[in-house]
Amino acid sequence: MKIASFNINGIKARLPRLKEWLEETRPAVACLQEIKTQDEGFPAAEFEDIGYKAIWHGQKSFNGVAILADGVEPVETHRGLGIDGPKEGEGEQARYLEAEVNGVRVCNLYLPNGNPHPGPKFDYKLAWMKRLRARMAELSALEQPTVVLGDFNVIPEDKDVWSVKAMASDALMQPESRDAYARLLADGWTDAIDTLNPRGGVWTYWDYQAGAWQRDHGFRIDHLLLSPEAADRMVAAGVDKEYRGREKASDHTPVWVELK
């Protein structure tokens, strides 16, 4: 069972690339972030045409997450983490969606970026990560194969970035961000990509600016965290790097894990 994550950076703009990836790699479950559309604008029929059923949690122009399943209906189990955005009166942003697919709990997230740092957006990021940890503790208690995946907007270690110096002041690499991520792992979750690539040097994001893709100036912020029950079933995990080099690509590339 192949479970994948892809920050698509605007589902309408990337729809041809997204369908291309789905048909070429055929993950059983595909979790999307930054769909950047309201619920009524989500192109569910486009995915139905190629055999995928979907649930989604949209928001106008920003954020938004979706879960696609090949040939089966994802059964929604949770939506949102109950934490308001950094602006007063903003309400909750569309950043979290959870479903069961073929006996596996799949939790799709788009974690706040946190820039500029310091400031209210960084405070929001840390508060969101704290709430995420609480939700993951609830999931652990279920003792069910669970994958928490998506764009975490955290570079876990120095080995996960092309240049530590270039990113030193970014919210993605602050000690507080890294500590919050490390706490998730310490609670018993397995970072699939890191486990199979312990030396690092694996990127999932390359900026559109300054020739980052052409120079391979990237970093790893898209992660797949496995509960013990899922980690026991892991047979492979990887990054579909080539999709970043295609025309009108997202600035992220898909990441995936395969469970037996």
TrEMBL record:
Name its GO BP terms in alphabetical order.
DNA repair
Indicate the segments forming the Endonuclease/exonuclease/phosphatase domain, all copies: 4-252
Q: Which Gene3D superfamilies is this protein grouped with?
A: Endonuclease/exonuclease/phosphatase
InterPro entries linked to this entry: AP_endonuc_1, Endo/exonu/phosph_ase_sf, Endo/exonuclease/phosphatase, ExoIII-like
Write down the position(s) of the site called Interaction with DNA substrate.
Answer: 252
Q: Where does Mg(2+) bind?
A: 7, 34, 151, 153, 251-252
The source's superkingdom equals: Bacteria
Sorted alphabetically, the keyword list is: Hydrolase, Magnesium, Manganese, Metal-binding
Cofactor binding annotation: Probably binds two magnesium or manganese ions per subunit.
Q: Where is this site: Important for catalytic activity?
A: 222
Q: Could you say which cofactors this protein requires?
A: Mg(2+); Mn(2+)
Molecular-function GO terms, alphabetical:
double-stranded DNA 3'-5' DNA exonuclease activity; metal ion binding
- Per the Swiss-Prot or TrEMBL record, the active site comprises 110, 151, 252
Question: What EC number is given for this enzyme?
Answer: 3.1.11.2
Residues annotated as site: Transition state stabilizer:
153
Its family remark reads: Belongs to the DNA repair enzymes AP/ExoA family.
Could you identify this protein by its name? Exodeoxyribonuclease III
Which species is listed as the source? Aurantiacibacter zhengii
Its taxonomic path starts at: Bacteria, Pseudomonadati, Pseudomonadota, Alphaproteobacteria, Sphingomonadales
Write the gene name.
xth
